[in-house]
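User: quick one, fold this
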Amino acid sequence: MVEVEVKVEVKEVGAGGEREIEATLAAILRSSKYRRLDLCEETIRDLLRAELPRRRPAEAIQAVRKKLHNIVAAYLGDPDYDVAAAQLAAAFQDPAPAAVRGVCAQIMAAHASTRERLAILHDFYPRIFAHTAAPRSLLDLACGLNPLSFPWMDLPAATRYHAYDIRPRRIALINHYFALQGLEPLAKTQDILAQPPTEAADLALILKEVHRFEQRQRGCTAALLDALRVRYVVVSFPSVSLSGRQDLAASYRGLLAKIIRGSAKPPCGRAWRVEELRFEGEIVFCIDKA
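Assistant:
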């Protein structure tokens, strides 16, 4: 579990006002363990705003610790970012056509979410874009290492690819890759639940993250979907557990249906069309918001 040592006097923290939140946040930011997390501070501030008003300070900090464990998801793996950046630079100097794809696949294999998708990448985006059309602009939300799958998307370098993640070193690697690939470096460190993107695009990707969003704050995904200035939202879930023993498709299909119902605003509601695509290990829903 991610541990953040916080030394703050209980008397300093009251019922969750901004002064108390900022005092506790400052204590967290000073801790050596936080510095090793490589994490957007807005994420911790958002968690404190949710927990401090309804708990005693020590309990609130413990609740934040538990949520950070899920958000950071260190158990899913991460590459060595310095080594990965050097490998990408070398690959773009290599005349072999497969060099860039090979290095991107190697880096994505360091994280469980993108590693599980490697076997289906040749088919993944062609099937999605058959429903949504190839986007001229897209938002990749809580992107992880997914932007490194751009070589499999068959999109031009003129594509405006906005990527958002709460890990600054991850974002630095993605912008490094974008520059090498000839894309505009539009990746940014941003907590999309605390601060939804304001950029308009044709398509938003939320891949294998919605179930973790809901663990952080139940009901938050509905508000995010409403806020996105896109026509299509592509949401995916793992269809089996990390161990491979549990089928999750029915459970996550029900979760998305509940979220979409929850995003309907009276009096007219949302008449969104949803297409389901099944892949090995992943279930994808193409949501048409038009």
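User: anything notable?
Assistant: The domain at 112-288 is CATH 3.40.50.150 (Rossmann fold).
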